[in-house]
Design a protein that fits this description.
Elements (H helix, E strand, L loop, with lengths): L2 H16 L5 E13 L11 E16 L2 E12 L7 E13 L2 E8 L32 E10 L2 E8 L2 E2 L16 E2 L5 E2 L8 E10 L2 E11 L4 E7 L2 E7 L2 E13 L2 E12 L2 E15 L7 E11 L11 E10 L7 E9 L6 E10 L4 E11 L15 E9 L1
Parallel strand pairs: 9-14
Antiparallel strand pairs: 1-2, 1-23, 2-3, 3-4, 4-5, 5-6, 6-7, 7-11, 8-10, 11-12, 12-15, 13-14, 15-16, 16-17, 17-18, 18-19, 19-20, 20-21, 21-22, 22-23
Amino acid sequence: MPKYFHYAFILSVCIAVETAGAWKVEGQFIMESTSFFHSPQFEDQARDHFSLQLEPEFRSSISQKAHLIFTPYYRWDKADSQARHFDLRELSLQSYAGDWEWTIGISRVFWGVTESLHLVDIINQTDLVVSLDGETKLGQPMIMLGWKTDIGMLESFILPCYRARTFAGPNGRLRMEPSVQSGLDDLSCRSPDNSLDFALRWSHTRNDVDLAVSYFNGTSREPNLILITQDSKTWFKDSYEDIRQLGLELALVNDGWLWKLEAIHRTHQSTSFWATVGGFEYTFTGIGTTSWDLGLLMEYQYDDRGELPNVLAQNDIFLGQRWVWNDFSDTDFLAGVVVDGDNSQRRTLRIEFGRRLSNSVALSAQAYFFSSEDLVDPGYVLRRDDHLRLSLEYYF
């Protein structure tokens, strides 16, 4: 990572602290330890990892209807230098007036309703070295204009720059073999065809139904990996295509049932495909004489490209359960497994636990277990990367 990123981070924090009288400051500091249950399969990899993350958030009200948000982020990793990085998660001016709202700067936007896979979510790039589930995102430069009408919310996005995905380096775990060396700088303001990325989204809530339709035209957030060999060295280089994507989100609440659906149709170059993920979550409230809630989840994942090396969810089933204690410590537990419908030997088990230890300190745990015996399966490279990640989180 270039040294100026370190300097930019330190300078950003100093500026914000200097003007702290005009800012509302909150955020989080995370100490994270990851223990792998098996020895590394590649000689450069470390057995255990330790990282520190700092993400302060500074908010300032310019007026009653305009706010400035500044959220720098820094991650330090003991074992993997490629996993150390600085990012601006937010640096934006947000305002609203009547039925209109707008955001200009760097921000984060989430689309989607399902649990196991986020097909529709495409505005922000995934920060893969921070979280394997794809829910942690890099900041995205944008201009967003929203208009609230009687028939829903219409949002338009102009995205002048795009981000390259973060990947673990040669010393990191949960990586490809060979490792990925990003072919782009951390921020690129040129798409493959030099055009400007843009997106539109209409969303509406009526009674117990949430519905959204979106369109994206620009640089894909999912990279193609190209094998490069040079000077007796081999590595993967990431490449990003121009795509057009039409997305659908649907959520329906009916008593204890929550039905969910995401679907996309994506076109790039001369080919196109469609993919979907959908299912339900049924919640039993007040188990026995307790205040606990138990949610049962099932989702089906389909991609009509079939069994290609870069397609992980072409015919898979997700089964899970969610326990919520409803106590003062916000204790919750989630366990879910994804099973390949074509090969039952390919499975991914995910377990998550969270609990507040005090008003400002929380403990979370996340475990992944990978099973694959197919040499051509993209998950085969992770077969020795079962791990437990413990995080101690301080909120201020």
